[in-house]
Amino acid sequence: MRVLGFESSCDETGVALVELPPAGQPGMPKLLAQALHSQIAMHQAYGGVVPELASRDHIRRVLPLSREVLAQAQLGLQDVDVIAYTEGPGLAGALLVGAGVAVSLAAALGKPAVGVHHLEGHLLSPFLSADPPEFPFVALLVSGGHTQLMRVDEVGQYEILGETIDDAAGEAFDKSAKLLGLPYPGGPHLSKLAEQGRADAFELPRPLLHSGKPDFSFAGLKTAVLTQVKKLGDAPSEQQRADLAASTQAAIVEVLVKKSLLALRNTGLKRLVVAGGVGANALLRTELNTACVKRGVRVHYPELSLCTDNGAMIAMAAAMRLQRGTARLREDGGFGVRPRWDLSAA
Ligand code: KG4
Ligand code: ZN
């Protein structure tokens, strides 16, 4: 059985084809082919994602990318058994493009369609890696819009242990980067600049670090960065900018690491899965690895290229649900999108 998956929740159009092991046989679904188009260059001029432009670009890209995926796999549409798409959360118009194309294709082929939760895609993306995790585990989900710690007992069994009360970690990276005059999306740019800086140069707050709960707050950090940027004046030196970038990154990473350790301690679990765009951050990976080795905890990451949005994670999440008989298949040609959707309700 093969699943064609579509991702279009924000600023990346992703399409991928995943194959399940033959019925009754154990094993992980396998990625056969994938293609991705990032809209970053298009949105950069505006300093952030422009929803209407995002939707229009998804429309332009989705069919050529689908053809590319099938050609890579040397298969045709008749070889696809299920069509998966990101149902939410995300930008309503952008979601509608992927959902509309997926459900139309499913109807034309007489095959079922299935809506996937975007964060479930991120969460299960490490199962596409060479070193997949085993259930149960604690998941640190750090994307542009979400920062959550979760207890994951199985596919579809998600208990939120803690989450951000304001900005997400990715947002903290992006907003701080913007204050430093870096292009969108700021996370990777800020972390690059931070390589030249000293992490102890500026004293920045670590909100809720000692709250004793696995919750987060990053809005205050952004304000503190703004204060420092103002103090540096109109022409900060390259070194000052790098120092502030390094200090900002260190503050975000320290909170993420401490809270992950707290969640691991509270649950008694010895396995951590990191997913979402911020999971690509090199300092976060180094610090988590060091902290977890000391505590006998295994850490799993998606492949670097699968940290940010992609179609493979959507096809994979659908495939893992199909294996368990818990995919919400629809064959009536109807669909909806859920711009806001709690993962614990998925
Ligand atoms: O998961 P994702 O691709 O999209 C959402 O679902 O939100 O995450 C995007 C976020 C952005 O905030 C981006 O700045 C951040 O991930 N990001 C990074 C890095 N790469 C991406 N943040 C810090 N360091 C990175 N290397
Ligand atoms: Zn995402």
From TrEMBL:
GO molecular function terms listed in the Swiss-Prot or TrEMBL record: tRNA N(6)-L-threonylcarbamoyladenine synthase activity
SUPFAM superfamilies: Actin-like ATPase domain
Keyword Membrane listed: no
Cellular compartments annotated: Cytoplasm
Cofactor dependence: Fe(2+)
Protein task: Required for the formation of a threonylcarbamoyl group on adenosine at position 37 (t(6)A37) in tRNAs that read codons beginning with adenine. Is involved in the transfer of the threonylcarbamoyl moiety of threonylcarbamoyl-AMP (TC-AMP) to the N6 group of A37, together with TsaE and TsaB. TsaD likely plays a direct catalytic role in this reaction.
HAMAP family in the record: TsaD (MF_01445)
Family: Belongs to the KAE1 / TsaD family.
Name of protein: tRNA N6-adenosine threonylcarbamoyltransferase
Gene coding for it: tsaD
